[in-house]
Automatic annotation (TrEMBL):
One of its GO terms (molecular function) is potassium:chloride symporter activity. GO terms for cellular component: plasma membrane. Belongs to the TrkH potassium transport family. This is Trk system potassium uptake protein.
Length: 461
């Protein structure tokens, strides 16, 4: 919080006082927690890890909302909490109007939240979720041990390497943005939110403000870079560059993305009668943005014809690779589900045969398949429940369904005129914002991490 405080102080914006006070309050509460919770043992049980993970992702946005609530933007605490939850979960939905004229401290704070949230989810995906066996993430426990622990046996070293890679990508992205014509401050902000696949921008019209093909290309490249497993970047640094492209999850992700872009280009060019160059540029950028959950926009894709809405709605759920900054269901779960279904078909045709589902050339444990199928069921169920609750609050069908989808999949913009790529979440009623904030939380923490706390059996000793 002191970083945007100094930025506001440098430009004589009085919001620096808000950040300074919020920083002091947060530091005081944090130190009290450290001092009162000191213990000799630092070993976490699985139950404690579930509680800690969820509470961290509730407490952080609660304190991160303070600068929003007391700044000159005159946001209510509901709006402030929504904005900070959207930032830390790298969702990208916003309630702030007039970003073009917002104080620099606030703009930087939004970007910092997404940047920290992005690296936080990578760390969690590498270290915490496999241990908790959430949604099939235990599949990567063995892979993690093989690829990282042999080279870097200590968790601190692993975190340092991932953080270093993340920082390098951010700096490189910022430099390229600056070379492409962005102002320095805007290049820094957009670099943080691009690599984090978060989508916060310093402009109301997002990346579309710049009307630059080079900016679009740079953003597309780094959105894809943020969507790939960071463990594989470490392998590439060690000289095993081919691992990045031999990984089946990466190949699936790039194939789905490429196929979706190609279909949309052909549709816009042949059916909607667009110029080929315009179709390529807009389809390439916006489909990448939605599928990776970044949420940038350069055009209102609601006006692209009949195919656009269902395709973008579908891509919201897919997401990127496990171990990346992206959100959604994740590609590896579709792979596991497809392999499991394929195995079941073969068993129906040959009842006495022995068939094994594989992922990346290794057998898929039965517990992983069950966990993935449970995740799919809960994901769809919660999406439907969120949409129903938003409908009961008074939102129309398109806003309710796409709002539920964009929250639980952590994408950013929804569909329709209200929360679409040219819209904003500010006009939604406060209850809807709290429901969407809850949706962002459960989506970012892979559902099970939050829902298990609601089970009475979890709290029994």
């Amino acid at each position: 919080m002191l970083v945007p405080a100094f930025v506001d102080l440098a430009v004589n914006n009085e919001d620096w006082q808000v950040f300074a006070v919020a920083s002091s309050l947060t530091f005081f509460v944090g130190m009290m927690l450290v001092l009162t919770c000191r213990a000799r043992s630092r070993t976490l049980s699985v139950r404690q890890a579930f509680v800690l993970t969820t509470l961290v992702w509730v407490a952080l946005p609660a304190f991160a909302a303070i600068p929003f609530a007391f700044s000159n933007l005159d946001l209510t605490y509901t709006d402030a909490f929504f904005e900070s939850m959207s930032g830390l979960t790298t969702t990208g939905s916003t309630v702030i109007l007039g970003l073009d004229h917002a104080p620099p401290g606030i703009l930087l704070w939004r970007s910092l939240l997404q940047w920290l949230g992005g690296v936080g989810i990578v760390m969690m995906a590498v270290s915490v979720l496999p241990m908790l066996q959430v949604g099939g993430m235990q599949l990567f426990r063995m892979e993690f041990a093989e690829r990282m622990e042999k080279a870097l046996p200590r968790a601190a070293q692993i975190a340092a390497w991932i953080g270093g890679i993340y920082l390098f990508l951010t700096v490189l992205c910022g430099v390229l943005y600056f070379v492409a014509g962005m102002a320095g401050f805007e290049a820094i902000n957009h670099a943080m939110t691009t690599v984090a696949t978060g989508g916060y921008s310093t402009r109301d019209s997002s990346i579309g403000f710049y009307q630059s093909a080079w900016v679009d290309i740079i953003a597309t490249v780094f959105m894809v870079a943020g969507s790939l497993p960071f463990l594989l970047y470490f392998q590439a640094i060690r000289g095993k560059i081919t691992d990045l492209f031999r990984d089946s999850q990466v190949r699936w992700f790039l194939s789905i993305l490429g196929f979706s872009i190609l279909v949309m280009i052909v549709y816009l060019w042949r059916v909607e009668d667009w110029e080929l160059g315009r179709a390529v540029r807009l389809a390439l950028f916006n489909i990448t943005s939605v599928m990776t959950g970044t949420g940038y926009a350069t055009d209102d894709f609601a006006l692209w014809g009949a195919l656009a809405m269902p395709m973008f709605f579908m891509l919201m759920f897919i997401g990127g690779c496990a171990g990346s900054t992206t959100c959604g269901i994740k590609v590896f779960r579709f792979q596991v589900l497809l392999q499991t279904a394929r195995m079941q078909f073969r068993r129906l045709l040959q009842p006495h045969g022995v068939f094994i589902a594989y992922y990346n050339g290794k057998p898929i444990p039965e517990t992983v398949a069950e966990s993935v199928m449970s995740f799919f069921f809960l994901f769809v169920t919660l999406f439907v429940l969120l949409a129903l609750v938003l409908g009961l609050i008074g939102l129309d069908f398109i806003t309710a369904t796409s709002g539920a989808a964009t929250a639980i999949a952590n994408v950013g913009p929804g569909l329709g005129p209200i929360i679409g790529p040219v819209g904003n979440f500010s006009t939604l009623p406060d209850p809807a914002k709290w429901v969407l904030s809850f949706g962002m939380l459960i989506g970012r923490l892979e559902i099970f991490t939050v829902l298990i706390l609601l089970s009475p059996r979890f709290w029994k000793v």
